[in-house]
Structure formats: structure tokens, C-alpha cells
Amino acid sequence: MAPDTMSLRYFLVLAQELNFTRAAARIGIAQPALSARIRRLEAELGTSLLVRNTRSVELTTAGAALVESATPALAALDRAWDAARNAGAGELGTLRIGYSLSAGAETAPALVDKLIRSNPGLEVAASPLATPEISPAVADGRLDAGITRGEQPARGARRFLLRRMRIGVQLARHHPLAAHSEIEIADAAAYPLRLPDRTANPAIHDQLSALFHNTHPTPQFRTPAVSFDLSQRDLLDNLTLAPAGEVAATTQPPALTWRPLRDAPTLTLHLVLPTLQSPLHHRIRTTAKSLAHELHWLTA
After folding, report:
1. Where would I find the HTH lysR-type domain in this sequence (predicted)?
2. Residue 298: C-alpha distances to residues 13, 166, 230, 293, 294 (Å)
């Protein structure tokens, strides 16, 4: 049977000091207790580890061999304990995040970067998904976390407010409304309005279209043939507008600009976590709250 690790640790201190009084003081126990530990260790091993006399303590051949082998063995064991504790605290492993395309331009990369910098032992794998797929994947454990815009969480998942954004419109730089610092909702409704396909994110589609319900004449809504076109070619006709959050201003091509809509409500981005949360999920939420405060995401 292997000896207990505490006795081994005591023996290594004694092997360094070669004096029971000094070793006991360094460990913080009484000298008789240390002597009893060493005698029990020798009994378990079936051999003497020390040569004792009234003036000194010396290592036997077996004692020297134990020092040589036990030191790296205990160091490896300490690393194993630390790895287990860190994993249990959510500091090790792979974190799987799913995010909607609207969160991929700025929000998701910022959170992933913050998680990596704050948790050196944590690997992060983030990938874009259709918004309606994210909350169910978090709820059933296929994802550890999600970032969604507007979508209500599935059963078994909870959402936490991560970011507020002003609603505005993307438009061509030479559009007649681009000269305004803010655009009236009614003025925007006089032009064709591009909205994402409702199946991609029903909550956001409905929220954006609801902005224009009371305008006259009834606005003309368009759904783009390509749901995620980085070139935004349909806006370059100098007529079409695309309702979008303010993050669009940092990701659009040079031919476009973004203007806020006056008196429009804010868009919200949420962190989605499972209802039953592990230390890893608490770590994600803490990091997200810190990032939101740092970047003033909740002050829009």
C-alpha cells in the first residue's frame, strides 16, 4: 500500500533540514508528532529512511532514493489536483459558444477574446448559427453558451442582457437621407426597407417591422435574396434602407453609412446559458458582465 502523501511531504521537509526540531517548526507541528509520522512511514515501507543519533540525522540509501523519486511524483500529483480543481471551477476545457450572425461582427469576438485573456487554460470554440437554433442547443448541452439578438430562450435555458444598441438604418452615402444626423421613422418608411427573412430570427424581424406599423403610406418591405451579403449590394441603389443596430456602422463597406432612427427603441443582445449552471457557466456570465461594463454596452 502506498504511504499517505502528507507523510511523504513531511519526510521531504525533514530530508532538507536533517533536524527534527527545525523540520517540525517549519511544518508547524510538534516534534513528537513528526517523529511518529516518520516511524509510521518507515513501517509502511518496511525499511529505515533515516540514521538518527543524538547530534544529527542522516538519510539512508533508501531515504535518499525516496527523496529522489518522491519529489517529482508529488509535484505531478499537485499538478493533477490543480487541473481537477481548475476544471471544476470552469478554468480548463473547451467552451462551445454559438452566436447569431448579427452578434458576429463585434459582440461575439469581443466576448471570446475576453474569455481567452481571462482564462489561459480555457479553449473557446465559437461558431455562427441560425438564431432559432442557439437556445435549444444551449438547453440540451450541445453548446455551453449562446449570443442571440431578440430571440426568446428555449425551455431549459436562460438569457441575460449583454448589450443594448440603438436602432438605425444602413444606407448608401449618397442617399438623400444620409445628410441627416438622425432620421425620422416616417421619413425612412417612404423608401424601400430591407428586412431579414423572418424565419432567420422572427423576434428581430417583428421588432424591426413594428417600427413602421403606424407610418403612411405603408412601407414597402424587401427580403434580400442573399441573407448575409457583406457587399450590401441591394443598398447601393441609393433608395433601399436596411434597419440595423449601431454595430453595423463598424462593419459596413465604405460606400454605406449608418444613421440612428429618432425615438426608436433599442435592440438587445443576450447571453444564453442553461438554467442549471456549472462553475464554467458562472465564469462565462461573470466575464460577460465585466466586458459589458468595460465597453459600456448597457448604457445605450
Report:
1. 3-60
2. 54, 11, 27, 7, 10
